[in-house]
């Protein structure tokens, strides 16, 4: 079967089958431009950050000249994962903990203990002499580092196109035009397929239903116990938009871009009505002028999904990486950023939002996780082979151009699955056995 998406439905095997999961690691993730991390994680020469993409262990390393190299995190000798910690500093060189082979910070083989014992084998003819191999396709876009694991493929700017405007806006919200990662990410493990989590980022018809018992209850208690004359606490301000009406979300709008990217919140969003932070506007005007500062701050996009598995919230400075573990297991990493040069209250709001909404201990995240897990259980039913994504479907729909549709449309999901299916067909070669 190669027609998993028929325009209005996707086949349930996308969320259940491990064999399909293994195939998409090679066909979708390795062929796409995937987010590695922010360069503020590795500010000094020798600093490294490790992650996995398409089930491949990688290490992002800062060089002496300030450039960033992304290495396959594997010793060419015995295959040992060289850098085991999430973050750290290698010093002047990288050293394998197994046999002490050493490498320059760009991966080049530096030394081997008792190297003369390799004289007769002509090491230069072995693949090991190439050292820790670097990923060829790396792009540092305004501090956000991406890689394409396949040696050949779509170039960075073509893949993302106009969608990069979301990252532009988040960076420009800093009066200094700079961001900095703060702290460690919140990690939340879900018993579901990663695509369910991606779907939920542009699903605007669930908040007022799924979150009624959490956000809705918090708002109700505030109204019952307060005199309504003083400003709402930050927690109520952050929760309130979750209970907005269908009409609010419909009027908010959704924008889709080619290659599976899209965002909710075109003309309005749940982040629009936050209280002003004293002094922030003046700092922005000083940096950008009144006209540009207005344009930057009026662009309050809700969730931007970058295909295949990155979600960015520019107005609240959070980023989530939706990491596939298996066909029915996903880990979501929730990172927060500081706007350099901005009042500290903005960072405080970001921290509170991340804790309230994205934490495994949050009031809201459990609502979504329960729905993902119920869907995983329900899809095992033989009653129906397909999952419906047809809300506001149009027969002449195109995914090859940028367009704006109703905020309650499921077109962003259809755009995502169209790109997923295209890559699965285009890169159907079976990966080598691990």
**Regions with little confidence, pLDDT below 50 for 5+ residues:** none
The class by helix and strand makeup works out as: alpha+beta
- Count of β-strands: 20
What count of domains describes the coordinates? Answer: 2
Largest sheet: 8 strands, antiparallel
Overall average residue pLDDT: 93
Radius of gyration (Å)? 23 Å
State the helicity in percent bands.
Answer: 25-40%
Q: Which fold does the CATH topology of the largest domain refer to? A: Naphthalene 1,2-dioxygenase Alpha Subunit, Chain A, domain 1
Per CATH, which architecture of the largest domain? Alpha-Beta Complex
Would you kindly provide a brief summary of this structure?
The chain has 434 residues and is of the alpha+beta class.
Structural commentary:
The model has no long low-confidence stretch (mean pLDDT 93). The protein folds into two domains: 34-141, Rieske [2Fe-2S] iron-sulphur domain (Rieske Iron-sulfur Protein); 180-426, Naphthalene 1,2-dioxygenase Alpha Subunit, Chain A, domain 1 (Alpha-Beta Complex). The protein is globular and about 85 Å long. The protein has helices at residues 18-29, 156-160, 165-172, 194-201, 207-210, 212-225, 234-239, 246-252, 280-298, 344-358, 365-378, 411-426; strands spanning 9-11, 34-38, 47-53, 56-62, 68-72, 87-89, 94-95, 102-103, 109-111, 137-141, 144-148, 179-190, 254-256, 262-264, 304-306, 310-313, 318-326, 329-339, 386-388, 403-405. It is an alpha+beta fold and 434 residues long. The protein has twelve helices and 20 strands. The strands form five sheets. An eight-stranded antiparallel beta sheet has the order 12-18-17-16-15-14-13-20, sandwiched between helices. A four-stranded antiparallel beta sheet has the order 5-4-3-6, with no helix packed on it. Helix 1 (18-29) crosses helix 12 (411-426).
